[in-house]
Design a protein that fits this description.
Elements (H helix, E strand, L loop, with lengths): L7 E4 L4 H14 L3 E7 L4 H4 L2 H8 L3 E6 L1 H14 L11 H20 L3 E3 L8 H12 L4 E3 L10 H10 L13 E4 L4 E4 L29 E8 L2 E5 L2 E2 L2 H14 L4 E7 L5 E7 L1 H17 L2 H20 L5 H14 L4 E8 L2 E8 L9 H4 L11 H17 L4
Parallel strand pairs: 1-2, 1-4, 2-3, 4-5
Antiparallel strand pairs: 6-7, 7-12, 8-9, 8-13, 9-10, 11-12, 13-14
Helix pairs in contact: 1-7, 4-5, 5-6, 8-9, 10-11
Length: 403
């Protein structure tokens, strides 16, 4: 850190870590601290009373920005167009939220004239990278305070004791010894009892999804409409991005769809266990692929899919504002221009399956008259003979070596 800050904007959630940080920064740097929270779909309960709590804990001001529409439109939907899935399972709900939070935090820096920012990410996690790379993209000169890398607390148990000494209310209890992070796309759980990768997550932990065993015995069907690769409607009703995701979260969650339990490879070099609930995101990924199967050219689809691991890694590692992500975005967005149509998705006891798909004639590449097993007049089966012979030629040459 270069020099003593004169005003700090703290990314504040009201949870254990950032509540302690607010008090600690005030005591350590003796300067004003502005608490900042981004409303990206945590739910009203998590944000309720946040400003009052921040001021009571020592904040000089508290800014809560409603960023839900921007988050859905400019972060989640572009990522969905890229088909981003990290290591085959993780739909990147936390990863994509961090650059949105960093962008909002830098807006508060500009409004308040602050010269420093602080975040609650630990020195072991990915979020420290995501936040700080995001800050650098907006102001390379900003001073960054990362308390977990500098203070003397050895772990969260010591934070709990500090909070209790200072009368700071905290949400982590012996009954729920894990951390939670929620936004419009998902909710994540990590730490505490989940650090044992053999231990099954307790059922009472889940928030967005019903237990598949207790989900309705009758499946639900939902039709998701797409234009230019983005979901625009549910069951024929056009909806704005936030409303669409909220409704789909409720529907899919009721049927137990969207749970993921995995051990992932962090950017900083270690493996970690995370449990996630992503109801709407799970359905949107499946539905989009259903429409793509009709509307994307084979080679474009295969090339786009080959880019997914690299795109997902950039999001996971925190490089949303990087030129390479923007480069890949331009490519996947060009492909997405063809993705128009509707997928009918079946939701049943934790499963999500495309049960039907259709596309307007001008976008549809599927030709029943070509694909049929019945007699047709548009495809000569004899043409396949030469096609196979030419594709097998190199294998024949290889097999004939030395003979």
């Amino acid at each position: 850190m270069a020099g003593k800050p004169t005003k700090v904007v703290l990314a504040y959630s009201g949870g254990l870590d950032t509540s302690v940080m607010l008090k600690w920064i005030k005591e350590t740097y003796r300067c004003p601290v502005v608490a900042y929270a981004a409303d990206i779909g945590q739910g009203a309960g998590e944000l309720e009373g946040l400003e009052k709590k921040a001021l009571a804990t020592g904040a000089d001001a508290c800014h809560v920005l409603d960023l839900k529409e921007e988050f859905a439109r400019d972060f989640v939907f572009p990522m969905l167009r890229g088909g981003a899935v990290y290591e085959g399972h993780y739909l990147l709900g936390t990863s994509i939220a961090r650059p949105m939070i960093a962008k909002g935090q830098m807006e508060v820096v500009r409004k308040t004239g602050a010269d420093a920012v602080a975040h609650g990410a630990t020195g072991k996690g990915n979020d420290q990278v995501r936040f700080e790379v995001g800050y650098a993209a907006f102001d390379p000169s900003i001073t960054i305070i990362a308390p977990w890398r500098t203070w003397d607390f050895g772990g969260r148990s010591e934070l709990v004791a500090y909070a209790q000494r200072h009368g700071i209310p905290i949400p982590v209890t012996a009954a729920k010894p894990y951390s939670m992070d929620r936004n419009l796309l998902h909710i994540s759980f990590e730490g505490g009892i989940l650090e044992d990768p053999w231990a099954e997550p307790p059922e009472d932990m889940f928030v967005l999804t019903a237990s598949p065993e207790k989900a309705p015995d009758k499946p639900a069907y939902v039709e998701v409409g797409f234009e230019n690769g983005d979901p625009v409607s549910l069951d024929g009703e056009r909806l704005a991005p936030v409303a669409l995701m909220e409704r789909l979260n409720a529907l899919a969650g009721r049927h137990g769809v969207g749970r993921v339990d995995l051990v992932e490879n962090r950017f900083v070099g270690m493996k970690s266990r995370g449990v996630y609930e992503t109801p709407a995101g799970t359905v949107l990924h499946a539905a989009r692929r259903g429409v793509e199967s009709l509307t994307l050219d084979r080679e474009v689809l295969h090339l786009r899919d080959s880019l997914i691991p690299q795109y997902a890694k950039l999001v996971y590692n925190g490089f949303w504002f990087s030129p390479e992500r923007e480069f890949l975005q331009a490519a996947v967005d060009e492909a997405a221009r063809s993705v128009w149509g509707t997928a009918r998705v079946k939701l049943f006891k934790g499963t999500c399956q495309v049960a039907g798909r259709k596309a307007p004639k001008e976008k549809n590449l599927y030709r029943p008259d070509l694909a049929t097993f019945e007699a047709d007049s548009v495809y000569s089966q004899k043409d396949a003979e030469g096609f196979i012979r030419l594709n097998a030629l190199r294998l024949k040459v290889r097999a004939q070596r030395g003979k």
